[in-house]
Amino acid sequence: MKATFLTENLQKILIFLNHAVSGNSQLEILSTFQIIAEKGRLFVNATDLEIGISSSIPANIEKEGSVCVPAKTFSDLVSNITEEKISIETQDKSLVLKGKKIKMVFQTQPQEEFPSLYEDKGEEVAVFKKETVLKDFNKVVFAASQDSSRPALSGVLIKKEKEVFLMVATDGYRLSLKDNIAIKTKKREAVDGLLLSARVVRELASIKQEEDISLFVSNKNNQAVFVQGETTLVGRLIEAEYPSYEKIIPTDFGTKAEFDKNEMQKAVKLCSVFARETANIVKISLKKDKVIVSANTPSAGENTAEIDAKTTGEENEIAFNARYLLDLFSNIEDENMTFEMAGPLSPGVFKIAGDNSFLHLIMPIRVQG
C-alpha cells in the first residue's frame, strides 16, 4: 500500500471514527483502524461489534492495499500533524507515515482478522434530511434506556401513524415522542415498527456532513445501514416487542402552565444543587401566574426559584428527578414550553408551545409533606 493525501481530510474523519473503536475488548483487532487504499480513495473502518463506521477521503494511490493499525496511537499522532500533505506506505509488518519533516512507524495487525462491517447492505428504504436528524431525533433519543438488559427500552422506535411517522423512546421513567417526522420513504412497510439502537441514532446526529442520509435495512443480517456522503454507519436492529407506550400518556389535565424554557432550566439547575443528597428530587409548584421550583436537603438547607408563567386550572404540585428535567431542556431548542399535569401522582407532560407533534412525559416521585 502507498497513498498520499491531505492531512486535514484524514484528521476530520478520525474524530468520528474513534466513536466506534473498542476501548476494553479482549479482541485486540477491535482497537484498530482498518485502512484500505483503493480506487482513488483512502477508506478507514472502525467497529466495536455493536456499531461500525466507515469513512473515506480522496487520495493519490500509488499502490492499493490494506492494513490495521492501533487506532488510539494513530489518531493521537495524526491529530497533531501540521504538515499539509502526508503519505502512508506499508513496509514488512509496519505502516510508515511520512511528511516533509516527520516520519512515524506503526506496528500493524493482519487486516484479515478485522470484522466485516456488513455482508449485505440490504435495500434502501428511506431518506432523512440532516436537519430532521438534528432537530427531531435529538428530542427523542435521550429518553432511551442505557440498560442493555432491557433491549426494547434501549432502542428508538420508528412507527407509521396514518400517513406520517413518529419516533418514540422511553426508559420506563420518562418518554419522548415526536410525531410528523419528515421521512422520504422508498418502502413504507420496511420503516414501520423499526426498532433502532439508541446508540446508532445518537451517532447519526453527530456525523459532520450536510448531505441527506439514506437508510438501508438488511433483514438477512438484522442491521440498519446509514449512508451519508462518504460516511457509512452500521448498527443492529433490536428484535424485541416494544411496550404499549400509548397507555401511559394521559389525556386529561387539571393544570397547565406555559413558561420560558431557559428560565425554567436555570431554576431547576439552581435547585438541583440542594437536591443532590435527596435522590435528586425537586418540587414543581404551579401557582397563579408563576411556577416555583424548590429543593430541600435536611443536612444542607433548602432553596426556591420562581419563574413567571401563564397558568390555568387549579394550583398543583409535583416532584421530579432533576436530571430528567435538565436532560429535557438541554435537548429542546425552542424557547417556550408548556407543562400539563392531573395530580402529584400522575405523569407530567411537557410540550413545545404551539407544537402538538412533540411531547415528553416524566413519571413523578412520591414525596412526604
Structure description:
With 369 residues, the chain is of the alpha+beta class. The chain folds into three domains: 2-113, DNA Polymerase III, subunit A, domain 2 (DNA Polymerase III, Chain A, domain 2), CATH 3.10.150; 123-245, DNA Polymerase III, subunit A, domain 2 (DNA Polymerase III, Chain A, domain 2); 249-362, DNA Polymerase III, Chain A, domain 2 (Roll), CATH 3.10.150.10. It is 18% helix and 45% strand. The chain contains seven helices and 26 strands. The strands form three sheets. Strands 15-11-12-13-26-25-24-19-22-21-20-23 form a twelve-stranded antiparallel β-sheet. The termini are far apart. 37% of the residues are buried.
CATH topology of the largest domain: DNA Polymerase III, Chain A, domain 2
Largest sheet properties: 12 strands, antiparallel
Range of helix content:
10-25%
Amino-to-carboxy terminus distance: 72 Å
Calculate Rg over CA atoms.
25 Å
